[in-house]
Specification:
By secondary structure, the protein is mainly β. The protein contains one helix and six strands.
Length: about 100
């Protein structure tokens, strides 16, 4: 499993009023959504996922992921050095509807 059991995945939600809110999704919810097939409609052969390692130090890293649908920042940690396995600890994302607005 690449998600830490205490994963904090968050996103900004914008309301028609212009107000923004923070949505929190737990690891258990992410696993449930995946099992239920959420996100399948987003997959295609030419998806074009960009992954950029922004910084790392020993057992921690910060990564940026850009897809046609999402712009996401991840914090990862190598929990067990012997396994050499990285897990996602924190994630924050926003829908990638129009990056030209930046």
């Amino acid at each position: 499993m690449s998600l830490h059991k205490r994963l904090a995945k968050r996103s900004l939600r914008a309301f028609p009023s212009g107000k923004k809110d923070l949505r929190h999704t737990k690891r258990s919810e992410m696993v449930m959504y995946t099992g239920a097939g959420y996100g399948e409609r987003l997959w295609r052969e030419d998806l074009g996922i960009q992954v950029v390692v922004l910084d790392y130090y020993r057992n921690i890293a910060s990564v940026k992921v850009i897809t046609p649908d999402y712009y996401e920042y991840l914090h990862l940690a190598k929990m067990h050095a012997k396994e050499n396995k990285w897990v996602i600890i924190n994630a924050i994302y926003e829908t990638n509807l129009n990056l030209s607005d930046e």
